[in-house]
Design brief:
Helix content is about 45%, strand content about 15%. The protein is built from 14 helices and twelve strands. Strands 2-1-3-4-5-6 form a six-stranded parallel β-sheet, with helices on both faces. Helix 2 runs parallel beside helix 4, helix 3 (about 80-90) packs across helix 4 (about 90-100) and helix 7 (about 160-170) runs parallel beside helix 8. The longest helix is centred in the last third of the chain and has 18 residues, at about 305-320.
Length: about 325
């Protein structure tokens, strides 16, 4: 008996090396255990039994076409970031996608608060995951010359890279080194990165790096910083926690949904001075650093691949069975 066919639409493929691609690729791998899977930028009309689409606005054309051709078939829409926190309020295509979907997925529980009550009944929370890396021993990190603080993400408005760069002006602890990984999608941010690097040698912009190299650098870091304006459920938080690296995060719903309301490492959105104070505190106060580390370790079980795969297969099995 042939396996049912699921078509996954993602607004980015491997070359982009961004969160949507990582999610789509991982989900395709999880589903191939029980389903035949096609992964593409857009639906080309290929006959299939169900669709999973990532991002309400950017996948809107595929969602509309599939819903028109297969109105009784499962159409699962994963709200992955800017669509959840912006587009479904301001963009007509994004709103239509949400209405067309038979099931919605958000990547952390705070995402439910962005949806109208009538949509929550068809919404599932699925935490993303990453393969765990054995953390470097604290004794080794304490002997390292630098206290490395790493930010990972392409330089674009939604990631607010300027807050990280401006923090370089305010950090005081001598050992601190700020490492910035990500390609410049806006040349203005590239200019700022070069200027910051010239003025503050402890800030280094490393540009785009392959994923394996990025995870290796992250594992050797003492902290990971995420300054984003909006996030659906950031992969970089998961990769930090599953590498034993605590996080400093902008105080936004998407980060709270990942790290919990009581997490000690939040700073006000866009506040580079507050971020710098937290970095200095983590670099100089062993008790504070240990608290961050313990809080992250307590969340690690949420981001295990087995948990994500079980949740995704459960969702797809249920929606497929409901349509038989």
């Amino acid at each position: 008996m042939a396996k049912p066919h699921i078509f996954i639409v993602t607004p980015a493929l491997a070359k982009a090396n961004n969160g949507n691609w990582l999610t789509a690729s991982r989900w395709a791998g999880f589903l191939r255990e029980r389903y035949r899977v096609t992964l593409a930028l857009a639906w080309d009309g290929t006959p299939c039994d169900a669709m999973i689409a990532l991002h309400a606005r950017r996948s809107a054309a595929s969602i509309a076409a599939f819903a028109a051709k297969y109105p009784a078939s499962p159409l699962v829409l994963a709200l992955t970031g800017t669509d959840l926190y912006r587009d479904i309020r301001t963009d007509a295509d994004g709103r239509r996608s949400v209405q067309s979907a038979t099931q919605l997925v958000v990547l952390q529980p705070e995402g439910l608060q962005e949806l109208a009550p009538e949509l929550r009944s068809k919404t599932t929370v699925i935490y993303q995951s990453a393969r765990s890396l054995k953390p470097l021993a604290m004794s080794l990190k304490q002997r390292m010359r630098h206290f490395d603080v790493t930010m990972i993400g392409h330089l674009r408005h939604e990631k607010d890279p300027l807050t990280f760069m401006r923090a370089a002006t305010h950090v005081k602890a001598l050992r601190i080194r700020l490492l910035h990984i990500g390609g410049a999608l806006d040349p203005v941010f590239a200019l700022h990165a070069h200027t910051t690097q010239s003025a503050h040698p402890h800030y280094r912009w490393l540009g785009h790096l392959p994923r394996a190299q990025t995870r290796k650098r992250l594992k050797r870091s003492h902290l990971m910083v995420i300054t984003s304006v909006m996030e659906g459920g950031a992969n970089v938080i998961i990769e930090a926690i599953t590498s034993g690296v605590p996080v400093m995060a902008s105080d936004i719903p998407g980060n709270r949904g990942m790290l919990g309301d009581d997490y000690a490492g939040y700073f006000p959105l866009g506040d580079s001075r507050a971020l710098a104070r937290l970095i200095d505190l983590a670099a100089t106060d062993n008790a504070f650093y240990a608290r961050l580390k313990a809080q992250c370790e307590a969340r690690a079980h949420l981001f295990m691949p087995e948990r994500e795969q079980t949740a995704l297969l459960h969702l797809m099995n249920n929606v497929m069975d409901a349509c038989r």
